[in-house]
Amino acid sequence: MTSPDSDTEDTEPTFADLQIHPAVLQAVADVGYESPSAIQAATIPPMLAGSDVVGLAQTGTGKTAAFAIPILSKLDTSSRATQALVLAPTRELALQVAEAFGRYGAHLPDVNVLAIYGGSSYGPQLAGLKRGAQVVVGTPGRVIDHLEKGRLDLSHLDYLVLDEADEMLQMGFAEDVERILADTPEYKQ
Ligand code: AMP
């Protein structure tokens, strides 16, 4: 057992130490997270500072929040342009990540999060794209589909996330990811 005044108090940050947006901080408190997980403590500060980040962590260690919290903290909610794109290998993961963005962004005004994935009807996805979504989470194939039909504009993208990048490579999505990257600005994080 460590003493109450042990080093951990100095070395382990709280969410409040991480300079995340107050509305996101409130949402994180609402969902009951007491302190950042290791991957969150390691990635949130450099992401907020504008660095490109590669995060390696096992499933279940809080990696979704590790990228969603800093992205939501920096989002320009006065614009409806798509500012963040998360690519995920499966529809299930895309839905899960979109839901997480919704939860962590619940107290931000006017945030639209849209999941786009194959094997489902176009109707709701098209309506969502028309309305404008600052955060789009999608599987590569359906993202390309919308890009090629001119329904998804990535020309203002600030943040691109490759979720489970290893899995996407193994599933043969490398070319699709390259295709999507070609439609995004150089300056993106
Ligand atoms: P993930 O690795 O993103 O799939 O997250 C795994 C689970 O951990 C999810 O159910 C999250 O809600 C939860 N979680 C994420 N961050 C934290 C945290 N800082 N404290 C407690 N639970 C968390």
Keywords:
single chain; 189 residues; alpha/beta; four-stranded parallel β-sheet; 9 helices; 8% strand; binds adenosine monophosphate
Give the CA-CA distance, first to last residue. Answer: 41 Å
Bound molecules: adenosine monophosphate
- The helical percent reads 40-55%
What is the total tally of β strands? 4
Shape: globular
Task: Quote the beta fraction.
Answer: 5-15%
Number of helices: 9
Major sheet: order of its strands? 2-3-1-4
Mean pLDDT across all residues, rounded? 94
Order of helices and strands: HHHHEHEHEHEHH
- Give the helix/strand class: alpha/beta
Q: Cα-atom Rg, whole angstroms? A: 17 Å
Largest sheet: 4 strands, parallel
Q: List unreliable stretches of 5+ residues.
A: none
Brief summary:
The chain contains nine helices and four strands; from the N terminus they run ααααβαβαβαβαα. It is of the alpha/beta class and 189 residues long.
Q: Can you walk me through this structure?
A:
With 189 residues, this protein is of the alpha/beta class. The protein is built from nine helices and four strands. Strands 2-3-1-4 form a four-stranded parallel β-sheet, with helices on both faces. Strand 2 (113-116), helix 6 and strand 3 form a beta-alpha-beta unit. Helix 3 runs parallel beside helix 4 (63-74) and helix 7 packs parallel to helix 9. It starts with 7 loop residues before the first helix and ends in an 8-residue tail after the last helix. The model has no long low-confidence stretch (mean pLDDT 94). Bound molecules: adenosine monophosphate. The site of adenosine monophosphate has 11 residues, from helix 4.
